[in-house]
Design a protein that fits this description.
The protein has 76 residues and is an alpha+beta fold. The protein has one domain. Helix content is 49%, strand content 25%. It contains two helices and three strands, in the order H-E-E-H-E. It has a three-stranded mixed beta sheet, with no helix packed on it. Strand 2, helix 2 and strand 3 form a beta-alpha-beta unit. The N and C termini lie far apart (35 Å).
Length: 76
């Protein structure tokens, strides 16, 4: 197995895990939703979280997404 194939498998597995752990997006009304975020959130994980939420927001025709960062931690 080449390094590229191995890395592609790792990425797919990581995306599956993120999908399982993704917090629920809560629809407040027909235009606004809130996404509670917990734990450490780095740039890469935040970007992936936004990407994974985009389709849901589009499907629900949500105009505004509020992020709730009260459950996040600082990086040590």
């Amino acid at each position: 197995m080449t390094d590229v194939v191995r890395l592609q498998k790792e990425v797919r597995r990581s995306e599956e895990i993120i999908e399982l752990l993704k917090p629920p997006t809560i629809l407040l009304n027909h235009e606004i939703a809130i996404l509670p975020v917990s734990g450490y959130v780095g740039r890469d994980s935040f970007d992936l979280l936004c990407e994974k939420s985009s389709q849901w927001l589009y499907d629900k025709e949500v105009e505004t997404l509020l992020f709730d960062f009260t459950g996040t931690t600082k990086r040590l």
